[in-house]
Amino acid sequence: MKRSSFPVATGLYVNYLLFGMFNIMLASHMSFLTEHFHTDQAGISLLVSAMGFGRLFTLYISGVLSDRYGRKPFIVVAGLLMAVFLVGIPLSPSFEMAMVLAVLAGVANSFLDSGTYPALIEAFPQSSGSATVLVRGFISIGAAFLPLMIIFFMNHDIFYGFSFFIPALIFGLNAIYLFKMKFPDMRVQSPKESLRDTSVSGVEQTVELVANDRSKPRFWQEGLSLILLGFTGPTLLYIVQLWLPTFGQQFIGLTESESLRLLVYYNVGSLVSVFVLVIVLRKWIKPVQVILIYPCISLLAFGALLLFKSQTAAIICSSIIGFSISGVLQLTLSVMSEFFSERKGQITGFVYTATSLSYTVIPVFTGFLLKHSQISSVFMLALIVNAVGIALAVFVNFRYSAVFPSSRKLSSTIVFDPE
């Protein structure tokens, strides 16, 4: 890792700590906002979908522009727009105004993603998997802290809007900080690209022979599968973040504060997962393997959550779900960057456009399910989506083994000329 990149990376990770709060802000204030806007849970789901709509229709173009004009402008503007959204929602005089702010927040989200992930990959090219998965860790810290802050304000009769205003202030200050920072070179090469460019005598010919045995990356196969994983993974995240408290209240019979604490357990599991991934990704396992192993674990946890109807089971399953869906989206992007390394911003745009589609469709669809059925149907949907994600990950792993020979095969084939 380059030490000169640490100051920039610090600001980027602070943004995602705040984004962890931002991402569950509406769901965590469901009861306050339904009263404030004179609507119901489906109405708040519509606000969440408006955020996804704004993100969906700007993410691809923001990724392309990020490749052309640099990462900094998009990241700075994103922080300022998110601050506007957070200040505006509690003060908004109408639901219609809140919808406009939600679309603006979606645009901010697309700017943040299309600038941050490529910037982290460029800052830490030798450990891009760990650098991007740490984003999930900071999201988890923020998401675990927000329910505790809300409970504190509830217990002390403090206006709920302060849980919006505090992260808004930090977003604004951090945008100013990042504006003054120097960002890493966009032309950085990944280790695989450097290997292809090697000119060491005695190596070039052997690398070429190994490369001839490789299958070429195919966008309409593994590329499309990874883009679809960019839909299934966030769908699981959003179902849990949006409806886990409601599940706790309606399916298990918890109080409002107890159900909010399920999000804390979920995010603690997520945070533990990030530390585990940072360690194991360095030596023992590849990102492409994680995107298969983790969904298998989460499938079992979702099944147990529906099967065992108790507070203890909910706490355990929430923690395991948090552990097993944490970092999958970030690692999907990392694997996509390995297959198609030429345009990191555009790749981010492809994957996160699918993510935005999930954020747009799933809140409306799950809100419809909840209106006409029970909360358990929402989590049955999660089981189905999880199974689809496993099938996609199996195929991506198959293609990965065809496109990239194992490091052991490569190292045993290359013989360095001592001269």
Shape: globular
Chain oligomer state: single chain
Per DSSP, the total helix count is 18
**Total strand segments:** 0
Largest sheet, in brief, is:
none
Provide mean pLDDT, rounded: 81
Uncertain stretches of 5 or more adjacent residues: 193-211, 407-419
H-E string: HHHHHHHHHHHHHHHHHH
From the alpha-carbon coordinates, what is the Rg to the nearest angstrom? 22 Å
Beta-strand content estimate? under 5%
Question: What does this protein structure show overall?
Answer:
It is a single chain. The chain is mostly helical. The chain is built from 18 helices and no strands. It has helices at residues 6-28, 30-36, 41-56, 59-69, 72-91, 95-123, 128-155, 162-179, 191-196, 204-212, 219-252, 256-283, 287-307, 311-325, 328-339, 344-372, 375-403, 407-413. It is globular, with a radius of gyration of 22 Å. The relative contact order is 0.15. The model is unreliable at 193-211 and 407-419 (pLDDT under 50).
Key terms for this structure?
419 residues, mainly alpha, 0% strand, globular, disordered C terminus
Describe the structure concisely for a colleague:
This protein has 419 residues and is mostly helical. It has helices at 6-28, 30-36, 41-56, 59-69, 72-91, 95-123, 128-155, 162-179, 191-196, 204-212, 219-252, 256-283, 287-307, 311-325, 328-339, 344-372, 375-403, 407-413.
Topology:
Elements (H helix, E strand, L loop, with lengths): L5 H23 L1 H7 L4 H16 L2 H11 L2 H20 L3 H29 L4 H28 L6 H18 L11 H6 L7 H9 L6 H34 L3 H28 L3 H21 L3 H15 L2 H12 L4 H29 L2 H29 L3 H7 L6
Helix pairs in contact: 1-6, 1-7, 1-8, 1-11, 3-6, 3-16, 4-6, 4-16, 5-6, 5-8, 6-7, 6-16, 7-12, 7-15, 11-12, 11-14, 11-15, 11-16, 11-17, 12-14, 13-14, 13-15, 13-17, 15-16
